[in-house]
Amino acid sequence: MTTVELLVDRPDLLIPLARIRWHEWGDEPGREDPQWWIDTTRRECGRTDPPVTFVAADAAGETVGGVGLIPVERPEFADRGPWVVGTIVRADRRGEGIGTALMARLTDWAGGTGIDRLWVSTGARAVDFYRRCGFEPYEVATPGGGDPINVLTLRRS
Fold it and tell me: DSSP secondary structure string, 30-84?
């Protein structure tokens, strides 16, 4: 059984979640230091407004994933938000529905706080996951002339 809670209510899971994120994305320029991930994850620990983070733990209490929501992800996209960020499931636990449970909890929370539209930017590899969670493609952008990213949106009715 997996539980999904606000990270602010489970501070003991902050460093394990940050480490999962670091293992996945720690090779990005400027983000190689695990402390960067700990500090970033700590800044995303809100309760009533973005930024917030949800963390998933298994029956043994081990951190198995997380997802965040922040007001603005990139300056180029400041005209829309909030943005889903840091969606991750530990590599050895993928395919068990944990990511879907995290997204369901996040979207339910957003709806309960009056947020009617969410955004996410991602590489091609995760597009199908977000589509299965109800997100629809919005555009393919190349902010700063870098690699193309997929922007998707979810409108809650």
Answer: T--SHHHHHHHHHHT--SSSSSEEEEEE-TT--EEEEEEEES-S-GGGTTS--EE
Reduce the DSSP state of residue 146 to 3 states and report it.
Answer: coil
Q: Give domain 3-115's CATH number out of 3.40.630.30, 3.40.30.10, 3.90.1170.40, 1.10.579.10.
A: 3.40.630.30
User: Measuring CA to CA, which residue among 67, 62, 66, 14 is closest to residue 38?
Assistant: 14
134 exposed, middle or buried (CB, 10 Å; 0-12, 13-18, 19+)?
middle
In 10 A of CB 38, how many CB atoms? Answer: 17
pLDDT tens per residue, range 105-140: 999 999 999 999 999 999 888 999 999 999 999 999
Polymer length in residues for the chain: 157
Q: What is the pLDDT of residues 11-64, one digit of tens each?
A: 999 999 999 999 999 998 999 999 999 999 999 999 999 999 999 999 999 999
